[in-house]
Amino acid sequence: MTTNYGPTIAVYRHIADDPEKVAALDHALTDLAHRHNGGAPAMEWEYLLVTARRR
């Protein structure tokens, strides 16, 4: 998630100068993976990115 998932990459960029926040996010993502991967080595998730133009 830290190299391929756009929203997570954006958050890491935003908190890059705060090691405590980076460590907390690392821990939260690891915990999330352990709770939701069902024992598999990887999770398949997707997200929708919408770009719109207002006229």
Coarse morphology: flat
- In round numbers, the mean pLDDT is 85
- H/E order of the elements? HH
Q: Calculate the terminal CA-CA distance, rounded to whole Å.
A: 34 Å
Low-confidence stretches: none
Strand fraction equals under 5%
Rg, Å, rounded: 14 Å
Q: Explain this structure to me?
A:
- The protein contains two helices and no strands.
- The chain has 55 residues and is mostly helical.
- The longest helix is centred in the middle third of the chain and has 18 residues.
- It is flat.
- The mean pLDDT is 85.
How is this structure best summarized?
It contains two helices and no strands.
SSE arrangement:
Elements: H1 6-15, H2 19-36
Index terms:
55 residues, flat, single chain
